[in-house]
Amino acid sequence: MLDKTHIIKMRYILSLLMIALSTGVIAQEPEKWDLKTCVEYAIQHNISVQQADVQARLAKLQADLAKNSQLPSISGSSGMGLRLGRSIDPTTNGFTNTQFLYNNFGLNGGVQIFNAGKLRNNAAATQYSWQASLAEMQNAANDISLNVATFYLQILSVIEQTEIAKIQIAQTKEQLTATKKRVDVGLLPEINLLELETQLANDSSNFISAISSVEQSKLSLKALLNLDASKPFDVVVQPVEQIQLQNFADLQPDYVFSIASQNLPNVKAANFRVKAAEKNVKSAKANFSPTLSFGYALSSNFSNQFKYISGYEFSGYSTPNASSPYVNINNTKYYVQTPVFTTTSATRNWSSIWKGWGTQVDNNFGQSLGFQLNIPIFNGGQAKIAYQQAKLNYRSASLQEENTQRKLKQDIFSAYTNAVVALNKLNATQKAMTSAEKAYSFATKRYELGLLGTIELLNNQNNYLKAKVNFKSAQYEYVFRIKLLEFYKGVNLTL
Predict the structure, then answer these.
(1) Is there a single domain that holds both residue 227 and residue 160?
(2) What is the per-residue pLDDT across 55-77, written as a single tens digit (0 to 9) for each?
(3) Which of 346, 370, 395 is the last residue of a domain?
(4) What predicted TM-score, i.e. pTM, was given to this entire model?
């Protein structure tokens, strides 16, 4: 049995703790978040969702690359350098041992005309992979949303327990006041007062534990939201009775599954993975077929070894012969003689390296076009192995899709069963609370008449408190089970 002094000290300490906790909560004046706000914030800031978003962006880039690979390719080139030793003179196509500077240009283009659908199927596969990544990102967001809803409802549940603990303290205080008056006039022994003071200390302890549970639950929710632990935070408290729920009859498992199997992102992702794998099989099979390409090229070059005319000298007239042109005057042939000039040429020195660059580039301009046929004959079995791998990946994706559907159906039926159990538990705890309330009311009246001891009264009071806590917990459990079925059905998480 506790002595009176110990009880008074306990009450004093508990009162200080209650004041400290209450003051801390009030002083912060935190912003209150509803469930919708929490879900939206979590989706935007959660690390897992952000990682899934990055993967989706990477998949989009891969899809764009694969799509653009079907377009014609065009590339330009240019080079300049100094040739030393034995090489081919670009101006004569002969071997030379003279060092010279060169400058060349090129423009090449090409497109695959036939590739057995390899590029087309590869582009389609990457497109499906991108869509799968988007669905997986949405699935990550859904997982976070469910976790947020779980923690949010947990906070509301422990807040309800805190309110119940407050009521319990108030009831015990009323009984303590009334009992003290009766003890002071000698109607009751002092032990009754000591027993109530002990109960008040226990009630205060339960209240502090409830407050601590609230704060711990808020910290867990903040961690899920990726909020700093020191940031003031609170939730909008909505009575559980005001939470909107769909009719239980509209949440039959077969009906929910028929909707979820078509709309849930994890199911869509699995389906897109199967389609991507199917296209990859066709793309891998195309490696056994020939490819036909068309190409086009433009080119030109310059060399400082290209000789230029440095001068000329008159050296006389040409010698006429029988084939030379002539003029007949009075039956006499006068052959036409042409002047003969001797030209001199020279190679550019360092001071005139680029002289005539434009003319030479223009004179050396060339172009070509043609077709190229590639026929696979032997590649070390790489094409065969790649094709077998693609077929196995397709099989794996198909099995994964089947497993996703089977697991989804199992989860929905399990969620429905849990909802039925939660409903039965709710009804049972409600009856238990009603009975406990009546018993406590009857015990209170008997205690006031002196027909019931303090211990019996406190037992009835504690039973009533426990029944109310169990009922509130059952209410929130039922809400969560129904919200889960609604979520499978495609309803957004709101209260």
Answers:
(1) yes
(2) 999 999 999 999 988 888 899 99
(3) 346
(4) 0.73
